[in-house]
Amino acid sequence: NIGELTTNVGTPDDPCGTWRDAAVLVEGERIAWVGSAADARTLRLGRDTGFGAHEMRPKAADPPQTAQSGHLEVVDAGGRAVIPGFVDSHTHLVFAGDRADEFEARMTGTPYAAGGIRRTVAATRDASDDALRRRLRAFVDELHAQGTTTFEIKTGYGLTVADEERLARLAAEVTNEVTFLGAHVVPQEYAERRDDYVELVCGAMLRACAPHSRWVDVFCEKGAFTPEESRRVLAAGIAHGLEARVHGNQLGPGEGVRLAVAMDAASVDHCTYLDDADVAALAASDTVATLLPGVEFSTRQPYPDARRLLDAGVTVAIASDCNPGSSFTSSMPLMIALAVREMGMTPAEAVWAATAGGARALRRDDVGAIAPGLRADLVLLDAPTRTHLAYRPGVPLVERVWKDGAAL
Ligand code: NIG
Ligand code: FE
């Protein structure tokens, strides 16, 4: 018996599509049925071996056919909450080294500067494939343990053709959502000839990375890439069959958001400094605003105003931005707690943003919700409601995680 099930198959009044006393049936990698616990008990009578792990399906639908194997594992949620696996649509998980010293300096007043990226680039270039792979796999375990079942990973700490290619290749070993971010910063060796670097990103580097990547991203910000450079990079990626996403409006106002909308990017991420025209452009677009509150937490900057975006009708996602500089956490529960406490979101909006919102930001319709036909990516919380994710911050409430129907 699932005490509170968040399906995200919702209504305007309840975007989380909440069911009480529910059940979900999983067959193979997919959700087969969603319904009430009482209906699940009836179904169970028709079976040899009991009813499935989690059962579900909209009311009037026919009961599912019992799996041929006849083997059904039953998990009793014991009245606790089940939510879709988290979709973390923004991470930078392939890197070496650590920048705890920068964090420490920030906590005594030194502001965050994107220049620290070059330190991670140096450490990453020096690391072997195996060292990067070991670290990456440890991060994947860390994500899974915290309920994240879908995640995007960006390159951007290589910044040579060969290094970017290997970061994209390593990322592709653990996710389909790989983003080419050769335009993260201009590396030191190109500092005096940035045009040549943009040319490289749009040419040889893109050609090397595109086979491993779905997305192209650019850090459109003072100190990184200008709007015009950013537009060139995105256009080159799109011409190569990649889809666009943008880092924008993180450190100050700028054109990142409007560029993202103009290029029909799936998402523009950070969105900390927005003017009314940015909000209006987002509201009229298919571009998701992905907020990354781990960054403001870790850099002591003002949080983005999620309430303003939601009230304007913008689709909002939240993600971890896990990286060694601006947000070294992979915890989606922490993002939810921060979104609620610091950004004006309700607990339901924050949980939606961390699941269905992330799926929208990745233009995925097979994850981020619990409904028949979707991937069976589920999280059982050791709590009676999803609200506890924000109400009990810092407490590990993720009890069990299933990805593609398999317990992790
Ligand atoms: O998303 N904004 C650009 N890139 C990262 C920070 C990377 C770093 O500091 O190493 C971000 O915040
Ligand atoms: Fe980022």
UniProtKB/TrEMBL annotation:
Binding site for 4-imidazolone-5-propanoate: 99, 157, 184, 250, 326
Cofactor binding summary note: Binds 1 zinc or iron ion per subunit.
UniProt-annotated binding residues for Fe(3+): 90, 92, 247, 321
Cofactor(s), names only, from the UniProt record: Zn(2+); Fe(3+)
Involved pathway(s): Amino-acid degradation; L-histidine degradation into L-glutamate; N-formimidoyl-L-glutamate from L-histidine: step 3/3
Broad class of enzyme this protein falls into: hydrolase
GO process annotations (BP): L-histidine catabolic process to glutamate and formamide; L-histidine catabolic process to glutamate and formate
Compartmental location: Cytoplasm
Annotated N-formimidoyl-L-glutamate binding sites: 157, 323, 325
Ranges where the Amidohydrolase-related domain occurs: 82-405
Annotated EC: 3.5.2.7
Keywords: Cytoplasm, Histidine metabolism, Hydrolase, Iron, Metal-binding, Zinc
Residues annotated for Zn(2+) binding in this entry: 90, 92, 247, 321
Any Pfam family: Amidohydro_1
UniProt similarity note: Belongs to the metallo-dependent hydrolases superfamily. HutI family.
Function description: Catalyzes the hydrolytic cleavage of the carbon-nitrogen bond in imidazolone-5-propanoate to yield N-formimidoyl-L-glutamate. It is the third step in the universal histidine degradation pathway.
Protein name per its UniProtKB record: Imidazolonepropionase
Species in which this protein is naturally found: Microbacterium immunditiarum
Taxonomic placement: Bacteria, Bacillati, Actinomycetota, Actinomycetes, Micrococcales
Gene behind this protein: hutI
